[in-house]
Model the fold of this input.
Amino acid sequence: MALMPKRVKYRKEQRRIRDRKATKGNYVAYGDYGLQSLDGAWLPGNVIEAGRVAAQHFLKREGKLFIRVFPDKPISKKPLETRMGTGKAEVEYWAARIKPGTVLFEIAGVPEATAKLAFVRVAMKMPVKTRFVGRRVRV
Done:
């Protein structure tokens, strides 16, 4: 299952700077525990899917898994040994923009120990450093 948008207004995008900390999506909103990134990166759709499969396989039918990121950025790449020029290359894959502090996945309905073990398996699939976070109670 390839994660990508159904439709986009423009097929190709410019690359952007991704060094700022996340101001949105940086807290656990839906579940009880979350996996938060500590680095910025572009997370390809197949990596997000690999994390989802790893978590679902560990959790079996317990709890609920929430995916908080979606690959909406087209990444284009020219073929090897191609001369410069002749326009921008075709879209190679779709990626999600990840800033430091972004919550990638959330889990609800399982004990903390089970959630930690599931996120250890997910973290192995991720190309960024991550940490386990819990829900903060806001007053």
Q: What stands out?
A: The beta strands are 33-37, 41-44, 64-67, 73-76, 91-98, 103-108, 130-134. The helical segments are 45-59, 112-125. The CA atoms of residues 14 and 75 lie 9 Å apart.
